[in-house]
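User: My instructor asked us to take a sequence, write out its structure as tokens, and then describe one feature of it. I'm not sure where to start. Here is the sequence I was given:
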Amino acid sequence: MNSKYEMLIQWSDDDKAFLVEVPELPGCMADGKTRQEAIAQAEIIIDEWLQTAHLEGRPIPLPNIKKSDKIAG
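Assistant: Let's start with the prediction itself. The structure tokens for your sequence are:
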């Protein structure tokens, strides 16, 4: 799993589902009836996005590590 990628989660009244967007990976989106389901689907889609990019020779963006996520060394 590549859960280090940022996920933007929002509820959609139109879709009656939680929508997840992964900003660092263009076009990488998922949905689910619950937040947990949407996140689980997003993690699958992230893996598939990365595999496809690798197979097609496209650049793979690094996760956007926020200052609070960095370990002091």
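For the description part of your assignment, you could build on this observation: The chain has a mean pLDDT of 90. Try explaining in your own words what that tells you about the chain.
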